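Hey, can you fold this?
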Amino acid sequence: MENGANTKSTMYYFYKQMLKTELDEFIPTLNAPLTPWFQLILKHRLRHWWEHLNNLDEIKDHEKIVHLKF
């Protein structure tokens, strides 16, 4: 994968169980800031999506617009 000028080159992978137990402890240890879009997703949606990862049809909603705010 090629990185653009505004792209960070470090990636981390989390498993569902890690999200529940380790993510909150891990975020402060990062050596670089999170991207704004990931901060919003983390704050508002990531855990909810991961809880329903096996059945995303259950939570998808193409009618509702969600405004994410810091």
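Oh, and this one too while you're at it.
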Amino acid sequence: MALNLSGDNSSQRIQQLVSSLQQTLNDPSLSVSAEASIGGTNILGSLETLLANLTGGLTGGNRTPRNIRQVLLGLLNQNVTITTPFEPVTGTLTAVQRDYVVVIETTGNTVLIPIAQIESVTAA
């Protein structure tokens, strides 16, 4: 697949790339494994994080998050408290995947939290 990025400036070309990647990731005819990785790096998660960062960067970072996942991406690598139906989890948000997040508690425990179970999230 060839991608021709035309535009008057780099911002327009990046916007075209972001749009193309979003369309590709949302294409139901493609089979993309969430576990696909290169050198231990999750490809899909990295692309989604890159898209979120690029999109926010192009708009000056003033976009209002549309969903909980976008809020979580904005808090990546920060201390957070995530409320679930079971108990709150506090620690560093180290990964935001398609359907779960990873939090490292101060005790060193790694906690995987399904996004569907998140009731609220706040910066700690």
